[in-house]
Amino acid sequence: MAQVLKKEMHARILRAAGKQFAARGFEAVRLADIAREAGTAVSNIYKYVADKEALFLQVVTPALAERHMQLLLARLDEFGERRPWTALTDSQSYAAARLLEFWVDHPHVGAILMGNAQGSRFAFVREQMIEEMTSRAMKTQGKEVRGSIEFVLRRIFSSTLDTICAVLQQYKKPEEIRDAIGCFWRFQLAGLQALLKEEAA
Predict the structure, then answer these.
(1) How far apart are the C-alpha atoms of 108 and 114, rounded to whole Å?
(2) Is the pLDDT of residue 1 over 50?
(3) pTM (whole model) above 0.85
(4) End-to-end CA distance of the chain, in Å?
(5) SS3 per-residue string spanning 114-145
(6) CA nearest 82: which of 186, 193, 2, 163?
(7) I want to staple 90 with a disulfide (CB 3.0 to 4.6 A). Which of 8, 37, 97, 187 is the partner?
(8) DSSP conformational letter for 89
(9) Which residues contact 140 (CB under 8 A, 6 or more apart)?
């Protein structure tokens, strides 16, 4: 059997860690789970990282986490600038296309940050995203929005992150990820526009 080079083994460990963290979350995953997924021993993982947190930070680097938030905020900026919202799909929005390509290129990172970072240094990110989406949607109304609408928006955006996470874990091919998220965006944008248009009336 050909010897597995260190670089190849490191890459295999990172892929296994990304898959496990995305599916089960930072807190639940053990190094033994990652080793099993990678087809190696836990002792071998320690040749590359000091502990689980160090491995996690090789999968979700601070630079990637910051880039993801920047892309999300750029996407949200459009909702205050353009109408109708139903036109803000990846085919008609540069910001949407860039965010979608980040998810295609880094599906595990997206899934972890949006849904499974509990217990890590990025545990706050999911709630920050929901807060940003909710507050910006409310600001588009130009007036105080009643509490029930805020509650509904928070639930909608929480479900948004859950759905995108599910897509990123379900599909592996870039075209499948693009198609599934595109379908979801068309559904969601029409619903949000109808909800907030009625509220503004």
Answers:
(1) 10
(2) no
(3) yes
(4) 70
(5) HHCCCCCCCCCHHHHHHHHHHHHHHHCCCCCC
(6) 193
(7) 97
(8) S
(9) 79, 80, 196
What does each C-alpha distance from 36 to 88, 164, 189 come to in angstroms?
A: 42, 27, 41
Q: Cβ distance 17 to 59 under 8 Å?
A: yes
Q: How confident is the model at residue 180 (pLDDT cuts 50, 70, 90)?
A: very high
Torsion sign over Cα 78, 170, 41, 53: positive
Alpha-carbon dihedral 112, 117, 120, 126, rounded to 10 degrees: 110
Q: What is the largest CA-CA distance in the chain?
A: 70
What digits encode the pLDDT tens for the residues 24-50?
999 999 999 999 999 999 999 999 999
Strands (E), the chain: none
Identity of the amino acid at 15: R
Contact predicate 90/180, CB 8 Å:
no
How far from chain centre, in Å, is Cα 23?
Answer: 12
Q: What six digits make up the tokens of 30? A: 């053990």
Token pair of 182 as six digits: 């595109």
Cis peptide bond prior to 84, omega within 30° of 0? yes
Phi, psi (5° rounding) for residue 120?
A: -100, 175
Q: For 60, phi and psi rounded to 5 degrees?
A: -110, 90
Mean pLDDT of the region 154-167: 96
